[in-house]
């Protein structure tokens, strides 16, 4: 059976074929209590004696992680080779930002108008689809009966979507009596371009559909006046995400994304890594790549604050990976995290941002938030990511409001789900080098090539909740 040893220090190898494809086998006898080494790092310890060649998984391995930790800043920077200047054809916005789509978005202040928004989007697309790249809305159940920080999180996400440069125009649709009513939300939004953003309370009009279509018509006319022009690659912001990881994620798709992330950053662009719980066990790799001690301290707070979030709710911090991950060959959170962080490449960490906060420093940014797929892609979109590189070993149709590039970790998944998968990283197992191909595909998506989530209408949001509902 074909297998691969990732690092010379490893005492396990990953099987490349057969029933145990993606799973680990021992390269030598391992005694109970000894560490299991993969990626050159410990991914847990044996809880029984393991013979050479035996299956190494949840039945004989446990995590080494427990509780909160203290960290020391030990810088390990890997300077990237500056890339030649590169451009793409995008949409320049009045505020200086750049979009890669020219869509109209209906953003609801409250879940009560979800169906109204869906009806408006359907009717508006039949009327105005030739004037823009489509009219879309993103249902959510929030915006009322929330308190304090919980409502503030909803507002931060919605603000990020309203301001997203992929939207040439936005209709902010409210009901009129919700906590997050339009006057309150306007205070959160601040100054907006009145040509680009319109507001409407459904309760204020006898026929809210007629009024909504009138406003969307104005936005469509505005969008039709905009065209693509040459934009610097440095204006691009790309999100990094994995979902349904398997034993190949850390061998194929995630390292590939990391190499492409480095190339984007070396070209002046920015990337955003999220899923904080899936940094646990590999966080020191990111911490030691922080640009300075201030960023290191922000990263420590990012990790410890999310651990506190688990503990406040009486949950086990390291209760991960998921059943699907385990079926795919991932044994412990360290195993999952060490594969997950490979999406970050070798670039230094330049900043840590909160949910709804925009990228301020070009380079690799860390974004707070959970690993949940829909929440994570929503957070990435709300922070201004033009597109998301989403690796998957198990497969998922989920898509963000922005182009969501699904990258399969194995060729079997790509063959089985061609309507989900945009790019297959599986050939890396056969020695193929795909960095150039994925980089060029990203440019083509930025210039208008549709991803499968766009073709099939998979555009969802899920807003992170941490509070009381009245």
Strand content: 15-25%
Determine Rg (CA atoms, Å).
23 Å
Strand order of the largest sheet: 17-18-16-15-19-20-21
- The residue fraction in helices comes out at 25-40%
What's the N-to-C terminus distance?
Answer: 58 Å
Task: Describe the protein in words.
It is a single chain. With 470 residues, the protein is an alpha/beta fold. The protein is 30% helix and 19% strand. It has helices at residues 114-128, 148-162, 182-189, 208-224, 253-266, 283-287, 293-312, 323-327, 333-340, 373-382, 411-416, 435-446, 452-455, and strands spanning 3-4, 12-15, 24-26, 35-38, 41-46, 55-56, 61-62, 87-92, 98-99, 103-108, 135-137, 167-174, 197-201, 229-232, 237-242, 270-273, 349-353, 364-367, 387-392, 404-408, 423-424. Strands 17-18-16-15-19-20-21 form a seven-stranded parallel β-sheet, with helices on both faces. A four-stranded antiparallel β-sheet has the order 1-2-3-6, with no helix packed on it. Strand 2 (12-15) and strand 3 (24-26) form a beta hairpin. Helix 2 crosses helix 10. 51% of the residues are buried.
Task: Write a short abstract of this structure.
With 470 residues, the chain is an alpha/beta fold. The protein has helices at residues 114-128, 148-162, 182-189, 208-224, 253-266, 283-287, 293-312, 323-327, 333-340, 373-382, 411-416, 435-446, 452-455; strands at residues 3-4, 12-15, 24-26, 35-38, 41-46, 55-56, 61-62, 87-92, 98-99, 103-108, 135-137, 167-174, 197-201, 229-232, 237-242, 270-273, 349-353, 364-367, 387-392, 404-408, 423-424.
